[in-house]
Design a protein that fits this description.
With about 280 residues, this protein is mainly alpha-helical. It folds into 2 domains: about 5-80, DNA polymerase, domain 1 (Orthogonal Bundle); about 105-260, hpI Integrase, Chain A. Helix content is about 55%, strand content about 5%. The protein is built from 13 helices and 5 strands. The strands form 2 sheets. It has a 3-stranded antiparallel sheet. Strands 4-5 form a two-stranded antiparallel sheet. Strand 1 (about 145-150) and strand 2 (about 155) form a beta hairpin. Helix 1 (about 5-15) packs antiparallel against helix 2 (about 20-40), helix 5 (about 105-115) packs antiparallel against helix 6 (about 120-130) and helix 6 (about 120-130) packs antiparallel against helix 8. It is globular. The mean pLDDT is about 90.
């Protein structure tokens, strides 16, 4: 038996109206489905004690990480506040651990991209990920007319947080895109396509994984690892942290500053140049 179908449908619509990302809508609704199924009651009947026991269940039996627990509690709180219940008000999400971004070296990134040179679409995708720092969802949402080859910019429309922004294309990325589009019969619509239509994030993740393997990279490489690699490389080469923030589409510079902690060799180099001479 399922519970809270009406409330969950309305909650999903509310999240969409609030311009929450597709990922957040899907994740929060999944979280609410799980808690309703576990407690086994309609939302209005669920109490603070029910949710306290559910939190303990996730922490002890399911062994949720701090980050998973944080997201789950935020989703639960959002739902119960939406239906006008105070049942989730006693739930306190744990502080999320600050995980260092995973990235690959410039040599590995070069090998990864070059391994796709024989496939125009895949080569253009890897160029875009490696040289723009786009999120995979942003890359998949691009249309042909979002890329201005003459001005060498791409407009990201309603990225994360419902913010538009501009990212820069280097010459090699422009050339890769032109070569790919020149091989297509359809010059409008989605920028990256498969035989079935617009490419999906899962397909892009598979592309990155396969070419990383072809390039002999033993690390786990994902589109987000390439985003981290882009940011870390810019920082290492002297880019201002505020420029990196704009290129990545971070609303807070605090999010971008995590990259200042990841490169020990860079920190040592800067320290040696800047340390006091007492």
């Amino acid at each position: 038996m399922s519970y809270g179908n009406k409330e969950l449908t309305e909650f999903r619509q509310y999240l969409r109206t609030e311009k929450r990302s597709k990922g957040t809508v899907k994740q929060y609704c999944h979280i609410v489905n799980n808690v309703l199924a576990h407690v086994g009651r309609e939302p209005a009947q669920i109490t603070r004690d029910d949710l306290a026991r559910y939190k303990a269940h996730l922490a002890i039996e399911k062994e949720y990480s701090k980050n998973s627990m944080y997201t789950t509690i935020k989703g639960i709180q959002s739902f119960f506040r939406f239906i006008g219940s105070d049942a989730a008000e006693d739930l306190v999400p744990p502080r999320r651990s600050e995980r260092m971004p995973r990235y690959i070296s410039e040599a590995e990134a070069h090998a990864l991209i070059e391994s796709a040179k024989g496939e125009k679409r895949d080569y253009a995708i890897l160029k875009m990920l490696g040289y723009t720092g786009l999120r995979v969802s942003e890359l998949c949402a691009l249309n042909v007319d979002d890329a201005d080859m003459h001005e060498k910019v791409v407009t990201i429309k309603s990225g994360k947080g419902d913010k538009d922004r501009i990212v820069i294309l280097d010459d090699s990325s422009v050339n890769a895109l032109r070569s790919y589009l020149g091989s297509r019969s359809e010059q409008n619509g989605a920028l990256f396509v498969t035989k079935r239509g617009r490419i999906s994030p899962v397909s892009v993740q598979r592309i990155v994984k396969n070419y990383a393997k072809s390039a002999g990279i033993s690390k786990k490489v994902t589109p987000h690892v390439l985003r981290h690699t882009f940011a870390t490389t810019l920082l290492r080469r002297g880019a201002d942290i505020r420029i990196i923030q704009k290129l990545l589409g971070h609303s807070s510079i605090a999010t971008t500053q995590i990259y200042t902690h990841v490169d020990e060799s860079m920190l040592k180099t800067v320290y040696e140049k800047s340390k006091p001479q007492y």
